[in-house]
Specification:
mainly alpha
């Protein structure tokens, strides 16, 4: 994990989004939302760099909505 201020802010922001996604997915029994939320909570420990953290966070944030838009909803 990178301890630069920007990386910590981005990780914290996506961590809160991941917590919301996980709780929402659990309450609605939506496996995709739960997995995306779990990924958002954990990925910042593996990904290095601010831009990579931002990119992966954006992708994990959009995946459940993109899958729902094309008709895939678990």
């Amino acid at each position: 994990m990178n301890f630069s201020p920007a990386s910590l802010v981005v990780s914290t922001l996506f961590g809160f989004v991941g917590l919301f996604y996980f709780r929402y997915g659990r309450s609605e029994s939506n496996a995709v939302m739960m997995m995306s939320g779990g990924g958002l909570l954990a990925y910042s420990f593996v990904v290095r760099g601010v831009w990579a953290t931002l990119l992966v966070g954006c992708v994990l944030t959009v995946v459940p909505w993109a899958l729902r838009a094309i008709g895939i909803d678990f």
